[in-house]
C-alpha cells in the first residue's frame, strides 16, 4: 500500500469516476447554486452505485471543515469543495456498509479514497492544487 493518500485506491468504480468527471466539468465557472445542484446530482448517482441511501447535503458557516452526521444521513460542507464532498461521502459509505468499522482509521481511509478519486479523474488539476497548497493531505 502506498503511503501517499492519492495513490491508495486504484480500483474505484468506473461509474464513480464518470460521475466525478461530470461534476468537475466547468466547476470553476458555475455559480454557487449550480455547484450545489451538481454536488447533489453526484451524491445521488454515486449513492446508487454503492447501494446506500443518498445523504442530504447542507452548506454551513462557521467552520472550515465538513462532516458527516450518521444519525441524519447528512453531509455538511463549509464551502463547495469537491474533495470535501468526496471525503464526507466516504464516511457515509463507511457508516452504511461497515457500521462496526471497516478500517482502523476512518479519517485516513476517507482521505485516501477522496484524494485517490480526485487524482484519478483530474491528475493535472490535483497536482496544481497540491502545488498551490490547496490540498492539506497528499
How would the blueprint of this fold be written?
Elements: H1 14-24, H2 32-49, E1 56-59, E2 67-69, E3 74-77, H3 82-97, H4 106-121, H5 123-131
Helix pairs in contact: 1-2, 1-4, 3-4, 4-5
- Class of secondary structure makeup: mainly alpha
Strand and helix order: HHEEEHHH
Average pLDDT reading: 90
How far apart the termini lie comes to: 14 Å
Helix content: 40-55%
How large a portion of the residues is in β-strands, by DSSP E? 5-15%
If you had to describe this structure to a student in words, what would you say it looks like?
By secondary structure, this protein is mostly helical. It has 5 helices and 3 strands. The protein has a 3-stranded mixed beta sheet, with helices on one face. A hairpin with a 4-residue loop joins β2 and β3. α3 packs across α4.
Give the gist of this structure.
This protein is mainly alpha-helical and 138 residues long.
From the structure above, extract its key features.
mainly alpha, 138 residues, three-stranded mixed β-sheet
